[in-house]
């Protein structure tokens, strides 16, 4: 795509005068216009935005590039950087968008659009988490991108507690937190199945400590109690099950109650089946 005639004429004019004053040039229809550097930059940016809004991605990218090249000292050059990141975001090119938003944040730390750039970078990380049906279940996959999204979203919410993007960011945080906790519990169950009890307990405690507010605490605690039972620590297991009943309720409290019944009921009663490691019926863990 070639720059418009107006942009080409403007570029020549600015080159001749150093961009310090306005100049006159003839438009296609014979009219004469006098434009300042800022007005010229705005006009070129608006032309690029028109292509962007029309989803003419190729032309928009070229036009934003022209804005950056011809008007590097205007605020429209910074906006062009941001819109190029938006171009990649809108086309689902999330790694490229993440890199471009990050560069904008680093290069323009005091710009008023940094909040927007940080939000979009976090959103791009969130959307870059691959959940296609052709992959293993989410909890079985590598969580590097999910963890990076978790960190960026938490940082954003901490830095901008009253942001207009807060509601969406809070929702994304809830989703990625749940996914990270489910991954830890998946690994813990694997270790439990292999009788690697210490490793299972470590993953459960890590999940509870590192990702508070996931909503999965009662599930994690029931799994912790079951692990302690298999480690032949019935008193610690009983305390965990009782905390689920007391503090959480819900379906996992029912499971915790069944474990306690299997153990012989109230605290201090000798355990009946703790050594067997057989889990009672209840919600699927």
- The low-pLDDT segments are 5-34, 132-136, 269-285
Please tell me the total number of domains.
3
CATH C-level class of the largest domain: Mainly Alpha
> Approximately how much beta-strand content do the residues carry?
under 5%
Task: Please count the beta strands (DSSP E, at least 2 residues each).
Answer: 2
Strand arrangement, major sheet: 1-2
What is the multimeric organization of the chains shown?
single chain
Return Rg in Å: 29 Å
Quickly count the helices: 12
Tell me the major beta sheet: 2 strands, antiparallel
H/E topology pattern: HEEHHHHHHHHHHH
Give the helix level as a range of percent.
55-70%
Rough shape? elongated
Structure description:
- This protein is mainly α and 285 residues long.
- The protein has three domains: 1-91, Methane Monooxygenase Hydroxylase, Chain G, domain 1, CATH 1.20.58; 108-215, Tetratricopeptide repeat domain (Serine Threonine Protein Phosphatase 5, Tetratricopeptide repeat, Alpha Horseshoe); 220-285, no CATH class.
- The chain contains twelve helices and two strands, in the order αββααααααααααα.
- It has helices at 5-17, 37-53, 57-70, 75-90, 94-107, 114-127, 144-159, 166-193, 197-210, 217-230, 234-247, 251-263; strands at residues 23-26, 32-35.
- It has a two-stranded antiparallel sheet.
- A hairpin with a 5-residue loop joins strand 1 and strand 2 (32-35).
- Helix 3 runs antiparallel to helix 4.
- It is elongated, with a radius of gyration of 29 Å.
């Amino acid at each position: 795509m070639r720059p418009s005639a107006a942009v080409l004429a403007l570029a020549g004019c600015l080159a001749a005068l150093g961009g310090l004053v306005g100049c006159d040039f003839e438009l296609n229809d014979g009219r004469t216009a006098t434009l300042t550097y800022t007005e010229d930059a705005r006009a070129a940016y608006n032309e690029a935005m028109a292509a962007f809004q029309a989803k003419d991605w190729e032309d928009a990218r070229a036009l934003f590039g022209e804005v950056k090249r011809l008007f590097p000292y205007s605020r429209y050059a910074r906006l062009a950087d941001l819109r190029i990141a938006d171009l990649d975001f809108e086309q689902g090119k999330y790694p490229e968008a993440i890199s471009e938003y990050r560069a904008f944040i680093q290069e323009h730390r005091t710009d008023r659009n940094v909040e927007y750039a940080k939000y979009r970078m976090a959103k791009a990380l969130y959307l870059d988490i691959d959940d296609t049906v052709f992959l293993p279940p989410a909890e079985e996959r590598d969580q590097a991108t999910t963890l990076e999204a978790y960190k960026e979203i938490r940082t954003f919410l901490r830095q901008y507690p009253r942001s207009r993007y807060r509601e969406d960011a809070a929702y994304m945080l809830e989703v990625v937190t749940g996914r990270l906790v489910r991954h830890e519990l998946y690994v813990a169950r694997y270790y439990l199945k292999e009788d690697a009890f210490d490793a299972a307990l470590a993953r459960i405690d890590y999940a509870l400590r590192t990702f508070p507010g996931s909503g999965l605490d009662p599930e994690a605690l029931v799994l912790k109690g079951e692990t302690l039972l298999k480690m032949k620590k019935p008193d610690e297991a009983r305390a965990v099950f009782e905390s689920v009943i007391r503090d959480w309720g819900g379906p996992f409290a029912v499971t915790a109650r069944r474990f306690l019944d299997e153990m012989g009921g109230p605290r201090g009663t000798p355990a009946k089946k703790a050594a067997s490691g057989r889990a009672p019926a209840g919600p699927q863990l």
